[in-house]
Design brief:
binds glutathione; 232 residues; 8 helices; 4 strands; alpha+beta; 4-stranded mixed β-sheet
Length: 232
Amino acid sequence: MTDTLRLHYAPDNASLIIRLALEELGLPYETVLVDRSKNAQRSDNYRALNPAGKIPVLETPDGAIFETGAILLWLGDRHQKLLPPPESEQRGDFLKWMFYASNTVHANLRMTFYPEQYVAADHRTALRVGARQNLISSLDMLERLANEGHPWFAGPQVSVLDLYVVAMLRWMALYPANDTDWFDLKRWPHLLHLTECCEARESASALCRAEGMAPKPFSKPAPPNPPEGSAI
Ligand SMILES: N[C@@H](CCC(=O)N[C@@H](CS)C(=O)NCC(=O)O)C(=O)O
């Protein structure tokens, strides 16, 4: 157990979403690099924190928390910011889209990044094609949602769902390198606007400094040049 919040991260990995939330909440935190070049996320030490061997983990006074969505909900609930509180009438709507972001959008995106973790070599192209079709229909749905005026998504105040979605939009534009032609954010103007709002915030500037990202990390992302570690 730790009294401090300790984020196990790799540059431009899902940990960046937690970094944004910690910055938005103004919380002190430490970072521990997970060395992707050595697959440190699969080491015994790391699996003691997250048996699934995935980044991120946030060590907290309540123990180590993994799963991006779970960490975001824990932080938001604990600090009563960045989401509708449990008693809010908006909570159900917010929760269903948080879970959709995590178990559908993020999961499909993972299939395009790591097809080798899902299927044999001769099925990988087909998996990527199928997952991208699903991503396009998810983005169409999120575009409509962003236009519906919910305070917990693309609203006047930033939310954990905003942070989760803009990070995934960044990765769609960048990864896998040289295979992103399917994605053009201009096709989803409300999501484009969301990326511009989020990257104008101080939390995004802090992220760019810490993980070596150029300005406009969500609307016009460029590959990072991190001071330590590697994205893949
Ligand atoms: N469901 C997990 C997925 C996290 C995830 O995919 N993390 C990536 C980095 S962005 C990772 O650990 N990749 C290395 C691997 O899969 O071995 C979550 O939401 O936290």
